[in-house]
Design brief:
The chain is mainly alpha-helical and 206 residues long. The protein folds into two domains: 2-74, Glutaredoxin, CATH 3.40.30.10; 85-199, Glutathione S-transferase Yfyf (Class Pi), Chain A, domain 2 (Up-down Bundle), CATH 1.20.1050.10. 54% of the residues lie in helices and 6% in strands. The chain is built from eight helices and four strands. It has a four-stranded mixed sheet with strand order 2-1-3-4, covered by helices on one side. The longest helix is centred in the middle third of the chain and has 29 residues, at 85-113. The relative contact order is 0.15. The model has no long low-confidence stretch (mean pLDDT 96).
Amino acid sequence: MILIGRLLSPFVRRVQISMNLLGIECERRPYGTATHADEISQVNPLRRVPALILDGGETLIDSAAILDYLDELVGPQKALVPSSGAERRKVLKLTALAVGAAEKGVVAFYEKTRRPDDKIWDEAVKKYREQILGGLNALENAVPTDGGWLVGPNVSQADITTAAVVDFVNIVLPDLIGDTDYPRLKALVARLNLREEFSSTHPSTE
């Protein structure tokens, strides 16, 4: 398999972490949407990452679709999203909160870095930042006080996506999260980043 995209993208990174945890090997081509638009358009006409080229030549696009395929591939016992019940609903909800925060982080970053200074819409950036903080607040409140993972006894997609998003926000919006903000969330992400499956995918490694 070939994974397309840079690790700075939280969407690419959550796929790579998931593949690491599931023991699925892949080649990764670190294409960025700003620098490799032509190459990316050959696998996704929307020029978005990630894309996953399967061994048979089929290409999957969008991280949610890729992760669903990976869970199907390994079966319900190893899947990173439970197959049914309250735990499945909770994992999906928390993952959606993290994904939403990531999406707003991307648009806030683009608004600040891809426009001339006199074209930046500060009110929109303020709104995006508030939405990111709303998602992070909800995730902070979801972290168990006993030091466990977000849902159940094992790392789930909720943990994976949360770690990818928090690290992404800290890089592209370094002034957003204060030193004393979100102590439980920061502790969770720090524990996850001690694991090789996570640390080897940190954007700083690329």
